[in-house]
Design goal:
single chain; 194 residues
Amino acid sequence: MRHRFRRTRSQPRRVVLLCDISGSMSPYSRALLRFMHAGVISGSRLEAFVLGTRLTRITRELATRDPDRALREAAEAVRDWSGGTRLGDTLKEFVDRWGQRGMARGSVVVILSDGWDRGDVDVLAEQMMRLSRLAYKVIWVNPLKAAPGYQPLARGMAAALPYVDDFLSGHNFESLDELARAIAEAAGRDRWNI
């Protein structure tokens, strides 16, 4: 017996965006949140989180078509805007609470951060190792990378880099277009709408 209408379908991978909203990222965070908003409303399988001293899921807040309203609702949901960053602790919370339940398993995980961390860098390295084992691909976007002569001297960035598949800058629209192409390629899509 043959199934005539049965075909193999390829399903694009889920994309998880984790954006650092600490004070050091404030020059870039609004543009990166707009990027995240465009991804959420595109209808793609996408989850959005922000990282500060705590982890906050903002997918629902970004789901409205009005970008100003989406950013306003996201800002209301976040309690630690422009504070410090505890990348290791927030990534641990993500992996423990969301990642192991399947959100990160086989997904393309994009971390948008400059790598400045107030927490223990050993915790960050351990959580990046755990995340890299769960995810299909880890992309790190650091707006500071575009500076001439940039070196990953921030302890958090240096601890994370061994577990990163793609290291990109995110400082302007062209670099965000490059990021969209990298996400589309990793997720198995023709293109990623932004």
